[in-house]
Design goal:
With 443 residues, this protein is mainly alpha-helical. The protein has one domain. The protein has 16 helices and no strands.
Length: 443
């Protein structure tokens, strides 16, 4: 057991959570910089049509990425429990099965994306010229999707084993490299939207190789033998039970955003682009709430596996307090500087106006999103992944239904009401129940 895992199992929850979550938060930020730098490079170097292509492609890419990230999070819960219990032999077999199974599923998703992406985008009534740009970008991204899975998977496993620093260092390095490659391929060599996509895939390959080599060298229980690769139906079913619910829980949120984007089409391309740029800002803010939640999940899972039930409750309540404090700071900054934030992505006044209306309105309403994130993290950490998936599905259904009703009447403000109502519903469904469950975790 390493020092970081010992801290998760015995040190005071607040400083432990802050120390463990900081690299995850920073890693999340640099992960978001992949897409943010893409949008900024395209908007500045190539103009509005390629930027529209990136914004149209984003929901498709986000859905696929969410599935892969969610599956990695689900498996990470199981890995953290086994790490806390010190069951290294079983952990190694879980690692082998999840690695091979996840790579196979990702290749299937890539094939599905190649077959369906263009017709799905066109079915929304999106401008064919923007769809053509989006497909140039997506074909490269889909070709390298397996490396997106592998880099996210190895990062999740390392964090579950108590190491949040190495994934951050890798993301910091690869994001810096990604920004430099964007400028080189897009701004200097004029490879257009292909250059942006190639930069993204190359950096995912770079991250995968680094993380895999680090895991093999430093974590002996992740070094696989031929015996570990034997099929095990019961183990595969257990892994699937952790992975599928977490994957769907992440994906349904992105699917909801995708459906809402289609409803925005009648408002014009600038409104769609402004909304998608505001979502990039939103995802940046969520780096903080999701980082705290992810750190809390590892702490909960390891302590549950180790039998430290009272620390499960303490980690949860500490996570809630940290999330509320973060929102007070971030919400204020977002409210004050919404137009300037959206202006980083585009100089088009109509795009900035649409994005700033959404971002400024939502600034303090993100409280419900942050609370929802920590509540969802609590249930993920104790293995109640189906509950988090069901709650997410219900809130997305409400969001889509209200968007359909309100966008024609209130435009961008209709989306604000719909999204906030979904978050409130999620907190209402799970909040009181989470407190009741947390009280059961006593020494």
């Amino acid at each position: 057991m390493n020092d970081r895992t010992d801290a998760l199992l015995s040190a005071p929850p607040l400083p432990t959570l802050l120390r463990f979550s900081l690299p995850i938060i920073l890693g999340n930020i640099f992960q978001q910089l992949y897409n943010i730098v893409d949008a900024m490079a395209v908007g500045r170097f190539l103009g509005d049509l390629p930027l529209s292509g990136i914004s149209v492609a984003s929901p498709v890419m986000d859905i696929l990425y969410a599935l892969l990230l969610g599956a990695s999070i689900g498996v990470g819960v199981l890995v953290a429990q086994l790490c806390g219990a010190g069951d290294w032999d079983r952990l190694r077999r879980v690692h082998a099965a999840a690695l091979l199974g996840g790579a196979g599923v990702t290749l299937g998703l890539s094939a599905l994306g190649f077959a369906l992406s263009e017709r799905v985008l066109l079915s929304q009534g999106t401008d064919p010229a923007a769809v053509a740009q989006a497909m140039r970008y997506l074909r490269v991204i889909l070709g390298g999707l397996v490396f997106c899975f592998l880099s996210n998977y190895f990062a999740s496993v390392l964090r579950s084993c108590g190491n949040s620093r190495t994934p951050f260092v890798v993301l910091l390095t690869s994001s810096t490299l990604h920004a430099a490659l964007d400028v080189l391929l897009c701004g200097v060599l004029r490879l257009g939207i292909y250059g942006v996509a190639c930069s993204t895939v190359f950096c995912q390959i770079f991250s995968t190789v680094w993380l895999a080599l680090y895991a093999e060298k430093n974590l002996a229980f992740l070094c696989l033998s031929r015996a570990d690769l034997r099929p095990d139906g019961a183990l595969a079913a257990e892994i699937f039970g952790f992975a599928w619910a977490a994957a769907l829980q992440q994906a349904v949120v992105m699917i909801g955003r995708f459906l809402v984007q289609g409803m925005l089409t009648p408002l014009g391309g600038e409104a769609v682009t402004g909304y998608n740029m505001s979502l990039r800002t939103e995802q940046f803010l969520f780096c903080f709430s999701q980082g705290v939640s992810a750190a809390m999940v590892v702490g909960l899972s390891q302590n549950l596996g180790h039998g430290n039930r009272s620390r499960v409750r303490r980690f949860y309540f500490t996570g809630v307090a940290v999330e509320v404090t973060l929102l007070a700071l971030l919400g204020t900054a977002t409210r004050l500087f919404a137009p300037e934030i959206i202006g980083l992505f585009s100089s088009n006044a109509a795009v900035i106006d649409a994005g700033a209306r959404y971002t400024g309105t939502m600034a303090y309403l993100y409280l419900f999103a942050f609370l929802g994130e920590v509540i969802q993290g609590f249930f993920r950490g104790i293995g109640r992944l189906r509950l988090t998936m069901t709650a997410s599905l219900l809130q997305v259904l409400l969001r889509v239904a209200l968007s359909y009703l309100l966008i024609p009447v209130w435009g961008v403000y209709g989306i604000c009401v719909a999204v906030a109502a979904g978050w409130v519903l999620l907190v209402a469904i799970e909040g009181a129940y989470s407190l009741a469950v947390a009280r059961r975790f006593r020494a």
